């Protein structure tokens, strides 16, 4: 019986617009994610980005924001900090904070892209071909995706302004509405 429900759910998902279906899948995935699996994904993303960025000047580092995961409601309040670091100088060039939903989106994007790049680099014998593939996955491009994900948040009140503040309940508000309320 459980399989029938799953099959029916998949049929419904296949009929939804792509963006809605992706959202449903991400929400469902975040709902079943355990804390240990989440920490494993953070570590995996660090490993994957390190492998792909080997030989490059910059890399991304992911870490759970201290104290954001200490609640029983960790899925709502947890924040993941994504930092772009210049390897040679050790200087932090950019940093963004993501909620769990944004992190899962980025995790899926990076791991699927990196799997293709790493598979291609292991089968290719031409070093120039490998470097052009790895260049397409450099830290700056991925940091751009992080920025895109975090900029998509809109204010829950006016639904117009870009959210400047995300409360522990995961609702996002623009500064104008926060000042007003």
From TrEMBL:
| Database matches in Pfam families | zf-C3HC4
Domain RING-type per the UniProt entry, residue ranges: 155-181
Query: A Gene Ontology molecular-function term?
Result: ubiquitin-protein transferase activity
Offer one example of a GO biological process linked to this entry.
Answer: protein autoubiquitination
Please give the superkingdom of this protein's source.
Answer: Eukaryota
Establish whether keyword Zinc is in the entry.
yes
Question: What InterPro entries does the database record attribute to this sequence?
Answer: RING-HC_RNF141, RNF141-like, Znf_C3HC4_RING-type, Znf_RING, Znf_RING/FYVE/PHD, Znf_RING_CS
Tagged with keyword Repeat:
no
Q: Which UniProt keywords apply?
A: Metal-binding, Zinc, Zinc-finger
Please explain the role this protein plays, according to its UniProt record: May be involved in spermatogenesis.
Q: What is this protein called?
A: RING finger protein 141
Q: Origin organism of this chain? A: Physeter macrocephalus (Sperm whale)
């Amino acid at each position: 019986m459980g399989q029938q429900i799953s099959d029916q759910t998949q049929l419904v998902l296949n009929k939804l617009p792509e963006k809605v279906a992706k959202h449903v899948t991400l929400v469902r995935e975040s709902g079943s994610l355990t804390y240990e699996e989440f920490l494993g994904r953070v570590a995996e993303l660090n490993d994957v980005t390190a492998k792909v960025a080997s030989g490059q000047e910059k890399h991304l580092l992911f870490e759970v924001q201290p104290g954001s995961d200490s609640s029983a409601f960790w899925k709502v309040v947890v924040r993941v900090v994504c930092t772009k670091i210049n390897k040679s100088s050790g200087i932090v060039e950019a940093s963004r904070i993501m909620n769990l939903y944004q992190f899962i989106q980025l995790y899926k994007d990076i791991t699927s892209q990196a799997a293709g790049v790493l598979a291609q680099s292991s089968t290719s014998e031409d070093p120039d071909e490998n470097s052009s593939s790895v260049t397409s996955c450099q830290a700056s491009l991925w940091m751009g995706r992080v920025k895109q994900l975090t900029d998509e948040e809109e204010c829950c009140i006016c639904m117009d302004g870009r959210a400047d503040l995300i409360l522990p309940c995961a609702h996002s508000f623009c500064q104008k509405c926060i000042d007003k309320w």
